[in-house]
Amino acid sequence: MSEFLAAMRSKSIAVIIVAAGRGERANAHTAPDPKQYRPLGGVPTLTRTVGAFLAVPEITSVVAVIHPDHADRYAALKLVDDRLLPPIIGGDNRQASVLAGLKALAPARPDLVLIQDAARPFATPKLISDVIAALARYDGALPALAVTDTIKRSSDGTQIVATEDRQQLFAAQTPQGFRFGQIFSAHMRAATIRRQFTDDAEIAEWAGLGVAMVKGDPNNLKLTYPGDFARAERILSGDHVMETRIGTGYDVHSFEPGDHIWLGGVRIAHKARLNGHSDSDVALHALTDAIYGAIGAGDIGVHFPPSDMQWKGAASTIFLKHAGGLVTKAQGRIINLDVTIVCEEPKIAPHAPAMRAVIAETLGIAPARVAIKATTSEKLGFVGRQEGIVAMASASIEVPRVD
């Protein structure tokens, strides 16, 4: 992370997702839903777009601007995150909808704001971070791609009157980022004149703000026509977009007087209990750390500090569910989980099916994606002396590739 992005932790960065259109051009007769709610790889497009920004830790708030007729559709997405604000109703056109979003954010007065089309679900963390970083030097920034085709100009759509210099032409994408106060003021002024601007960068240029370009992403396409969804599905299925990551976890807890232990989310009667701050479920702790590791999200101690008394005696399924939620926010999926428990007693095999079921239900995955194994230490070491239990875990996660 750049020094600027590190500094952003002390600043507020809001995101406006513009989702107030009907998306009629993208709808074939077999796709009645507006494009922002149409499934893409089994996940609604708007869910993917919102998730792309919630996957960036520097983002402090996200608000969707929706069509007045789409409140039920939005609610059906069941989007939940502390940074996600209630949706607001948009205007008659994109420019009016963005202004509605800016007005909704105005009381909080964020330092920066990113404006994103709901129909661009493939914005990567790197692309988003590049736009944010450019705002250290410029009033505004947007991703753009150099035009590679020869561009012709025609006044009637038939006869060519000029050939443009493509070396000076770039195709604009979103998110487009700005310093909040400046773009809010520019939008307010633009609303007083009889002119419709094509995007927020054009409003910024009209207002005299300096707008820079960062390198765009060819896969950051905007879903406009039915064929765009076919291309998007190909992007999702291609290995050039998704990558598999492996995380590992290790945990150990000692025994103390008691009559049961928690392992894999299952209560097991035993002659002692495991010592620890939460319920001391050594298996779920190792597994949670493995998932965090696969997505580069630290460990349990980062998210649930043992110094915080609210986690005293807490069920470790809370930690596991949080880790799974981060995978979802990163637009990823869990491929498989593998847990090995090392102990002399109790016997693990009779409880393994129940452990698999608890883990699968907590993470919303199939039990077939969870493996529970057990072994002893052949009476060697502290495990062999029955002084504690060790657990090791690995997690295989598929997430969007970050170059």
3D shape: elongated
CATH evolutionary superfamily of the largest domain: Spore Coat Polysaccharide Biosynthesis Protein SpsA, Chain A
Our measurement of the CA-to-CA distance between the termini, rounded to an integer number of angstroms, reads: 13 Å
The CATH architecture of the largest domain: Alpha-Beta Complex
Count the domains. 2
Q: Oligomeric state of the chains?
A: single chain
Total beta strand runs? 19
By CATH, the topology of the largest domain is: Spore Coat Polysaccharide Biosynthesis Protein SpsA, Chain A
Low-pLDDT segments:
none
How does the helix and strand content classify structurally?
Answer: alpha/beta
Largest sheet: 8 strands, mixed
**Proportion of helical residues:** 25-40%
Helical run tally: 13
> Would you state the CATH class of the largest domain?
Alpha Beta
